[in-house]
Amino acid sequence: MRHLLTTENLAADTATAVLDTADELKRTLLGREVRKLPTLRGRTVITMFYENSTRTRVSFEIAGKWMSADVVNVSAGGSSVGKGESLRDTALTLSAAGADCVIVRHPASGAAHRLAGWLADTGTCVVNAGDGTHQHPTQALLDAATLRERLGGLAGRRVAIVGDVLHSRVARSNVYLLATLGAEVVLVAPPTLLPPGVEHWPVTVSHELDAELPAVDAVMMLRVQAERMHGGFFPSAREYSIAYGLGEARLRLLPEHAVVLHPGPMLRGMEISSVVADAPRAAITEQVRNGVHVRMAVLYHLLAGEGEQA
């Protein structure tokens, strides 16, 4: 891989190789008192986040440090962006300063792709950590890793993605990656929270959550992204929760083996109840743990070279 920008054109072999590497890294670090590998010693990884983040930013930082890379954090508020510097000039500055990899989160869809274009001749690779409502490829990879771990594989599995699909880069990334890996995806949402052109995605669409739950192997609940909404998309939070929230009664509709996922942050009591979020079949904390190993694997494939051993 040269960059990791999207799951839409990510080959199945490449995605599987990243997931297999993440599994191997997880086994390698299991039980170690000092979780440190020398694989990326001498490499510099810069995280550049223009939006707030807890899970993604922290797990990338931990991933880089566990691989012995030098990790530098840049925030919009503490950089020259606050003085009016453009994204392009910031990226070129970081590359000139010695960045081997730039991990970027940006509110504008397509920002990571523009960044990769500007850095094409520099040797610096780019990882998309979320761009607007477009893509979040490492989240999809860690979700796939969690499902493989819980279900034993993805081929032939049926996954429901429920809620605010319109504003969710996680939903878009998961749709394409899960389809590439052989899973069937059903989107469950009110019509107002489905994006234009969804009929061209490799999915089926439903508006009835109760009808879909008995036939799925996993259900991914999405947060309602009120910060991206301008106007009314549903009557009220209470009515949304009644129609599309996953509570204890709906949990009983799922097959015994079914897994509950949530990319976080959770709005407990709206799209998911605390009883469900903390239930044994919920793999939400496992997603966070697997996120570190998956992001280690991504950095390995981008920076370590084919001759290196993870």
Automatic annotation (TrEMBL):
GO BP terms:
'de novo' pyrimidine nucleobase biosynthetic process; 'de novo' UMP biosynthetic process; amino acid metabolic process
Do you know which Pfam families this protein is assigned to? OTCace (PF00185), OTCace_N (PF02729)
Query: What range(s) does the Aspartate/ornithine carbamoyltransferase carbamoyl-P binding domain occupy?
Result: 2-149
- Got a GO cellular component term for this one? cytosol
Residues noted as binding L-aspartate in the record, renumbered to the chain:
K83, R169, R223
Q: Entry's InterPro entries?
A: Asp/Orn_carbamoyltranf_P-bd (IPR006132), Asp/Orn_carbamoylTrfase (IPR006130), Asp/Orn_carbamoylTrfase_sf (IPR036901), Asp_carbamoyltransf (IPR002082), Asp_carbamoyltransf_Asp/Orn-bd (IPR006131)
Protein family per UniProt: Belongs to the aspartate/ornithine carbamoyltransferase superfamily. ATCase family.
What PANTHER family does its record include?
A: ASPARTATE CARBAMOYLTRANSFERASE, ORNITHINE CARBAMOYLTRANSFERASE, MITOCHONDRIAL
The protein's job, in short, is: Catalyzes the condensation of carbamoyl phosphate and aspartate to form carbamoyl aspartate and inorganic phosphate, the committed step in the de novo pyrimidine nucleotide biosynthesis pathway.
NCBIfam families given for it? asp_carb_tr, PRK00856.1
Q: What is this protein called?
A: Aspartate carbamoyltransferase
**Lineage of origin:** Bacteria, Bacillati, Actinomycetota, Actinomycetes, Pseudonocardiales
